[in-house]
Amino acid sequence: MPADAAAGDATADDDDFCSFVHGRRTLAKQGSGGNNQFWGNDSWACAWSSRAATSRAPMPDDAPTTQGSRIHRWLKTAPTRCFVAYASFAAFATYFCMYAFRKPFAAAKYEGLMFLGTDVNLKTVLLISQIIGYALSKYAGIKVCTEIRQAHLAKFLVGLILFAEFSLFLFGLLPEQFKVVAIFMNGIPLGMVWGSVSRYLEGRRASEVMFAGLSCSYIVSSSSVKAFGKWLMDQGINQFWMPVTAGLFFLPLFIVAVYFLNQLPQPSAADVADRSRRSVMNSGQRWAFFRTFLPAMLMLLLVYFFLTAYRDFRDNYTPEIFKALNYDTSPELFLQADWPVAFGVMIALACLNLFRDHRYGLIAVFGVMLTGIVLMATATLLHEQGKITGLWWMILIGTGAYLAYVPYGAVLFERVMASTKVAGTAVFAIYLHDAIGYTGSITVQLYKDLGQGELDYYEFLRGFTWLLCGLGLVCFVASCVYFMGKHKPVAADKS
What we know:
The chain has helices at residues 3-31, 43-56, 70-77, 80-99, 122-147, 153-173, 179-190, 193-201, 207-234, 242-261, 269-275, 283-292, 294-316, 318-324, 331-351, 358-384, 390-405, 411-420, 427-451, 457-484.
């Protein structure tokens, strides 16, 4: 039952109760000459009933948990620019810090170490183990992140990170053959951080700008924390103890970032009118959403299966790819390859907020994704012709891949829900795609090692680029056309 309906029923019951008490008092006075000690005052009963009704009415899903905070009160009346800047920074900081518990271990090469005496490199097994845990987390997040109450999000986020840090401690402590178990455990909680953070940002008129800041975090954080991990190893820290050490540095920062994120008030009435109400979704609502958009969802899932694998392959094997391109793998090189990507993608996503009409806004989102596909193809063609360097090729395909990939993380489904006026949370569609995407990442990495082991990492990535470009072009155009037929215009839309 909705909270307001339950509260209304409770109020009606209170009125009946007060009327009953008042009637008993009148009868008692008549029967005792107007002097009755017990029924002499009915105010206590009505006051008690009012308090009881308040406690009985269920708390709304979106009830603020920090309404007494000065920061929370200020944010409720803050200018839009200040609110957006605050929310973007808090979300950016939270997710950036999360990467310090996920990616530093990939900075180590684990050279000469094979898994259980096989021909499979230990690093490959570690990467796949973490991705399996991360993928399972995404499947769990389809339910958990769409059903968890807003009041519990902050504690949930901190608990996830503490579990991840404990698993990194086990990664350093356990014998080599069991380290894959520890890194698998590490991936399980981390996969639900994105959905939890997204719940704070979705359903607002400026969501695109805030999600641009959040998305920027995972573009730059991977290379940044891996550079930090390499620096720790340069200081003499063992490659197996380096990940937990990096996590200890970032744990206090993560907790502070979550505190500030948790101060955000719920979307305003104007936000709800423009973007539709965002609420938890049960299994029936999730299945109804999927059926409603089935053709487009299947096409988007197919592209995302390969797109996530592509992004992860480029990210996880950056040192090996640069080595094949005859570059020295210095920490600065990682930053040079990713920071320009972050700024380009952030600007493109932020500009999507300029489209107030959700039909044109959704077209613009697909336009950004198609631009990414075209950029990847163009950069690869130019590099094959020797017209750009390997570094510029990595920068441009990274920019293109993230232009296609990042909108899946929120902006695409934020606009789909706003355009079609479907109630619920965009986190469901995000996590459904993430679950399929990381399954693709596991599949492609295994295919590379077991089926294309003779190819170096650069050649494999180059061929993968052409496959993804062809598939993405067809599916993105078809999905865009489909969603245009589902658009529901409202008076609030403005072009």
